[in-house]
Amino acid sequence: MQAFVAVADAQGFAPAARRLGISPSAVTRLVARLENELGIRLLQRTTRSVTLTDAGARYLERARRILSDIEEAEESAAAERARPTGRLVVTAPTMFGRLHVSPLMCRYLNMNPEIVGELTLSDRVVNLVEDGVDLAVRIGHLADSSLIARLAGTTRRVLVASPAYLERHGVPATPVELAEHKTIQFRPVAPVTDWSFHAGDRDLRVPLASHYSTNSPDAALWHAEHDGGFTFALSYQVVDAVNAGRLRIVLEDFEPAPLPIHFVYPSSRLLSAKVRTFVELAATTCDWRF
Question: Which domain holds residue 232?
Answer without folding.
Answer: 157-254
